[in-house]
């Protein structure tokens, strides 16, 4: 063992200890849960891992199973789903390019019967539960085996066999061919244009994981498409880089609100092979899969990076705290979500025994939160594993860590302008419930409208603040054919409350609030109005290579409120008040009326 390797192991040990001590040294962080945190789950369709559970389900059975799964994940606090819509050059949606997936209908190329397009349904059901929908594509995997006679007549292999490689019993697209990159871009952009997705997602499968005795036969492409005369490893990395760069550019020029992110293997490079690497001694995504994830974040070619950190805090080869700290330093201003290995709690590994206990997964989520400026959330693999509640992991989320709702973090490099506040907020107080109704505002200067609304409730003795999600009463997404209304049946008769309503756009920018206050009288109607001036811009974000320049927004103006209090039939008292913003108050105090 080299001195460098020994030093790296020693550093890993100390970073691990420091990370665990940080969790116990900051108990206050657990007192107020984060208001902004992505809480996602992967839904794998390949081999029917998560959904649908069988290839023989009818469309109605598929829909019922998906709804039930989302309901369970909603109870677990999940606010984003990453659904595999193209597992192996096949489709879980109506495609004119690729065949229906055999994991959907049992036979590749066979349409659902009765016929329907699952993807609009999958998206709508996620949105109805306040969840982002990220469409998960496997760019290079063409088939789970190399028996081409089983491929559907419209499989791309039938038209372009020269695009493909055979490796370890699988059929793969050749990343070195420009036509392949263009085709993959076209496939994904077809979905971006036609469906209301929130994100495009890749996992860790680029060039194949190495297997003994197997060779990637891309010699012809290397000879023909290598104008820079790169070495084979650098040429392969460049091929993947070009796909990532060009796809991100295509997405942003088509729908600026659609995010693009990748979930790479958890180790970029080991420090013994590169001084910029992590203090680990594991397989490397950079050299093993030709996936230079650090370069993608450095160049701003992804909006988020989601490394798969499926090891425990005590696993010396790749300790979780060591890798968490490394990725937090190498996100280059892009969002960092952590891939959490919920499935590991179902294993009986003798190499990584920390998963045999009940504390490892909750400990990792708490450790993530000790990096509040750098780690924006977690995504769990996979849905089935989390639902099975291994070692009470889901209970820890539902009852503790994810007990209160969280909004998805904003991405200022994509959009930093909030929508306009809701209009005509009216509260009708009655002995059994308080009913709030409102109307949407006109579009903001950037063309955005509210995608959903957040309603906060405070006791009359509390100072309203936007930072504590425990005051979020509901997150409401408008549905076609329904009005904007919320009935608060938990309000106690005789008590006064302050309700604050904000509008939130597709990229989760939050407007200034509109607010109403009750007095606790048995019957009263309160009408609130707010200025349509947008909220101030958030603080500037660190510069990234491709980040656009944001525009300044005018400061908010005075808010007027009209209150009508009804104490008896025919007796109405109208009170008009003009609330002036106090001087020398902070931004959130100013917009939320803090004292």
What does this structure look like?
- InterPro entries: Divisome_Glycosyl_Hydrolase, FN3_dom, FN3_sf, GH, GHL10, Ig-like_fold.
- The chain has 595 residues and is α/β, with parallel strands linked by helices.
- 27% of the residues lie in helices and 20% in strands.
- It has 16 helices and 22 strands.
- It has an eight-stranded parallel β-barrel, surrounded by four helices. Strands 17-14-13-20-21-22 form a six-stranded antiparallel sheet, with no helix packed on it. A four-stranded antiparallel sheet has the order 16-15-18-19, with no helix packed on it.
- α1 (3-25) crosses α12 and α13 packs parallel to α15.
- The radius of gyration is 26 Å and the shape is globular.
- Mean pLDDT is 87; it is low at 1-30 and 536-595.
Helix fraction bin: 25-40%
Q: Please report the total strand number as a whole number.
A: 22
Shape: globular
Beginning-to-end CA distance, first to last residue: 61 Å
> Which segments are poorly predicted (pLDDT under 50) over 5 or more consecutive residues?
1-30, 536-595
**For the largest beta sheet, what order do the strands appear in spatially?**
1-2-3-7-8-9-11-12
Helical/strand content category: alpha/beta
Strand content: 15-25%
Biggest beta-sheet profile: 8 strands, parallel, barrel
Please tally the helical runs, counting DSSP H or I stretches of 4 or more residues.
Answer: 16
What does the radius of gyration come to?
A: 26 Å
Indicate the mean pLDDT.
87
């Amino acid at each position: 063992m080299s001195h460098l390797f020994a030093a790296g192991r020693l550093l890993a040990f100390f970073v691990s200890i420091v990370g665990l001590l940080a969790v116990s040294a900051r108990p206050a962080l657990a007192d107020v849960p984060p208001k902004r945190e992505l809480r996602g789950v992967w839904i794998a369709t390949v081999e029917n891992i998560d959904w649908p559970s069988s290839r023989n389900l009818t469309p109605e059975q598929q829909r019922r199973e998906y709804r039930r799964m989302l309901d369970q994940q909603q109870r677990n606090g999940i606010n984003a789903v990453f659904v595999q819509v193209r597992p192996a050059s096949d489709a879980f949606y109506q495609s004119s390019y690729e065949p229906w997936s055999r994991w959907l209908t049992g036979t590749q190329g066979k349409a659902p019967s009765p016929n329907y397009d699952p993807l609009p349904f999958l998206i709508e059901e996620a949105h109805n539960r306040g969840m982002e929908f990220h469409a998960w594509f496997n760019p290079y995997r063409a088939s789970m085996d190399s028996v081409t006679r089983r491929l559907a007549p419209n499989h791309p292999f039938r038209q372009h066999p020269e695009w493909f490689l055979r490796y370890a019993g699988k059929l793969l697209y050749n990343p070195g061919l420009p036509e392949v990159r263009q085709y993959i871009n076209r496939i994904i952009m077809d979905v971006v244009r036609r469906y209301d997705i929130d994100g495009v997602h890749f996992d860790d499968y680029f060039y194949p994981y190495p297997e003994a005795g197997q060779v990637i036969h891309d010699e012809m492409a290397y000879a023909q498409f290598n104008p820079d005369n790169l070495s084979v490893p650098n040429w392969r990395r460049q091929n993947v880089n070009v796909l990532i760069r060009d796809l991100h550019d295509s997405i942003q020029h088509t729908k600026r609100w659609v995010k693009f992110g990748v979930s790479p293997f958890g180790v970029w490079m080991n420090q013994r092979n590169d001084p910029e690497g992590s203090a680990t001694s594991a397989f490397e995504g950079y050299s093993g899969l030709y996936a230079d994830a650090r370069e993608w974040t450095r160049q701003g070619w992804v909006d988020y990076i989601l490394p798969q950190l499926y090891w425990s805090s005590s696993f010396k080869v790749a300790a979780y705290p060591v890798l968490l700290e490394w990725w937090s330093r190498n996100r280059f201003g892009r969002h960092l979500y952590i891939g959490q290995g919920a499935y590991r709690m179902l294993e009986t590994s003798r190499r990584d025994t920390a998963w045999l206990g009940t504390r490892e997964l909750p400990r990792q989520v708490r450790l993530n939160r000790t990096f509040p400026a750098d780690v924006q959330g977690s995504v769990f693999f996979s849905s089935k594993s989390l639902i099975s509640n291994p070692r009470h992991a889901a209970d820890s989320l539902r009852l503790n860590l994810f007990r209160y709702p969280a909004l998805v973090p904003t991405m200022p490099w994509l959009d930093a302008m909030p929508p306009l506040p809701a209009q005509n907020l009216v509260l009708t107080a009655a002995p059994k419930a308080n009913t709030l109704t409102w109307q949407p505002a006109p579009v903001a200067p950037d063309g955005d409208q509210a995608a959903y609304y957040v309603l906060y409730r405070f006791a009359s003795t509390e100072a309203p603040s936007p930072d504590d999600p425990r005051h979020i009463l509901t997150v409401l997404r408008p549905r076609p054919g329904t009005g904007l209304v919320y009935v608060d049946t938990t309000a106690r008769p005789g008590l006064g409350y302050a309700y604050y309503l904000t509008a939130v756009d597709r990229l989760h920018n939050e407007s200034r609030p509109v607010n109403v206050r009750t007095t606790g009288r048995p019957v009263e109607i309160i009408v609130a109005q707010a200025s349509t001036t947008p909220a101030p811009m958030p603080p500037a974000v660190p510069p990234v290579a491709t980040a656009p320049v944001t525009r300044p927004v005018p400061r908010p103006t005075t808010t007027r409120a009209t209150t009508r209090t009804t104490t008896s039939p025919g007796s109405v008292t109208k009170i008009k008040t003009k609330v002036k913003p106090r001087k020398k108050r902070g931004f959130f105090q100013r917009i939320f009326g803090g004292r």
